Structure prediction request, 316 residues.
Amino acid sequence: MKQLRFFYLAMVHPDERNMSDTNEHKLDPQKWVEEYGDYLYSYAIGRVNDSGKAEDLVQETFLAALKARDRFRGASTERTWLISILKRKIIDTYRKKYSSKESSFGEHDGTVFDGDFYRSEEPFKGHWLEGSGPNSHSLLPDGEMEQEELLRFINLCIENLPAPLAAAFIMRMIDEEDSDTICKELDITPSNLWVMLHRARLRMRECLEKKWLS
Amino acid sequence: MAKGPGYRMMVFMSKRMIACDEASFLISLREDRKLNFRKWWQLKMHLLTCHLCRKYERQIVELDHSMEVYREGCSHESCSHQLSSDASSQIAQAVKGGLNAN
Prediction:
């Protein structure tokens, strides 16, 4: 293992050699903002979608990192370590929203029914409500689509999701966490998670379709 | 009326038919984990008869694809943002304060 590491440092990544030779176990908080500020900010803004909130998160991350810097063992790079702290902070903001709202998403019993999207009168129970089902054949417009526009729409639509749904959707689709981790972080059962993801997808689909049509 | 295998098949199927809510849930669930045979069959049977859910299925696949684009787009430079100078100096101050406090 040691030999492998040496090989990596010597051959693969000369920059990293300098860094880890001088910096193993040492951090340089003075330079954090300069070096990682923009990176952390971009990461945060892709997930909370509010520049003020993202700035606060970056600051909180640095402060938390300062407090915890004795625990940094140099097992990861400074940057991944800071990102892991930021991730935790982002999840915390969702959890706060989640518990303060006390919405019905939390105590969901696992039924799929959602009155915003499906009909509830008996013979047609469970059918799509007029207009809430898919209208167009394809969610994406024909031909070349502007990638920037797509990213902007996705951001807008995530913003429109109710907080707990957004939390689940972001962790699953953007951070690509596995379901066990998400359930633990949000303190829900797997069947709750599947229903929440389903509802998030219902809303995302509807929102994106409307955005493209307008 | 004679109750042949065809009739019994019809009863078997109609008792187990699902509506659009269940079907769309299964389409979403399928993105996250494998369906068991029963659910897979129910979904297939529903999709045979329901054009709205066929559209929905297609769109959900497209949504997943767009999210992939989104993930990749955001790990590259193309959608990187920069801290405003005010914010970064404020954060630098806070970090300095934190350093002195320790």
